[in-house]
């Protein structure tokens, strides 16, 4: 008898190729890989701009696909930078497409803001995800400030304190499923 692995959908709030946020998601994915099936969502920039007139029973195909990926996942991890003291527009846009649904309702979710400062963006991420009824707590959310000095160009976590914080985050996230 084969046991099905728990499906996790990591989402990077950055559309920049090889961003620090993507590297952090890769690090966490590798850490969790033995227990989870993980596929990072990399199509944030392909989602159309949110338009309430299109948020009907038949939304754009890209939105249906995105919502289904969230719905089909057992858990979601979002790792985002902060842009101009807020969330990146592409991530906020994606989350706005979820407001009229229940795809995040009671969904185990991990939230990471990794940026230069990140405080205000993190606060907004927590508020939005609380509004979407995502399931997270203090142990499954993390603010990483000064991220560029903590992740190498090759994707290695070069700050021992940050590596430890990410491992604790990953363990706490994993424990939500036990």
TrEMBL record:
Alphabetical list of Pfam families matching this protein:
FMN_red
Listed InterPro entries:
Flavoprotein-like_sf, FMN_Rdtase-like_dom, NAD(P)H-dep_reductase
EC number(s) in its UniProt entry?
A: 1.-.-.-
Q: Name one GO molecular function term.
A: oxidoreductase activity
Identify the keywords attached in UniProt to this record, alphabetized: Oxidoreductase
- Residue ranges of domain NADPH-dependent FMN reductase-like in the record: 6-134
Is Oxidoreductase tagged as a keyword? yes
Its name, as the record gives it, is NADPH-dependent FMN reductase
Lineage runs:
Bacteria, Pseudomonadati, Bacteroidota, Flavobacteriia, Flavobacteriales
